[in-house]
Amino acid sequence: MDAQNPAATPEEFLAHAERLRALARRLVKDNASADDLVQETWLEAQRRPHSSIGNLGSWLAGVLRNLAREERRGSGRRARRETDAARADELPSTADVVLRIEGFRDVAREVQSLAEPYRTTIVRLYSTA
């Protein structure tokens, strides 16, 4: 905020308010999220004053698009983490556990029915695993 690049006035920002709201609604499709996005844009504009290079409206729209992109990326990463965490917490159904145990019993019966030295070989091979 120096003499060469003065900060925009609140009136200058407000002149672009409706256009930014419309853009935010198109980007996020949810009015509450769109309002939040516009507010984040205003905050970012206060943190990083717009230079006199270019159009204030275009600059604000660019800031809003970047914030929306960052939010989508963050939401995507969050959704993937939640999905991965949910998978880790899933327990097999009782029917799946029973089928698996029955399968182990069938294999054990078949191994017991093998003749020597095959039975001992199989038992030694899989008892160390």
Q: What distinguishing features does this structure have?
A:
129 residues; mainly alpha; 2 domains; rod-shaped; disordered N terminus
Description:
The chain is an all-alpha fold and 129 residues long. The protein folds into two domains: 1-90, Rna Polymerase Sigma Factor, Chain: A (Orthogonal Bundle), CATH 1.10.1740.10; 92-129. The chain is built from six helices and no strands. The protein has helices spanning 10-14, 17-28, 31-47, 56-89, 94-112, 118-127. The longest helix has 34 residues, at 56-89. It is rod-shaped and about 90 Å long.
- Kindly report the average pLDDT value: 84
Strand and helix order: HHHHHH
The tally of structural domains comes to 2
* CATH homologous superfamily heading of the largest domain: RNA polymerase sigma factor, region 2, helix turn helix motif
pLDDT under 50 segments (min length 5)?
1-5
**CATH topology group of the largest domain:** Rna Polymerase Sigma Factor, Chain: A
Percent of residues in helices: over 70%
Radius of gyration over alpha carbons? 31 Å
Under CATH at level 1, the class of the largest domain stands as Mainly Alpha
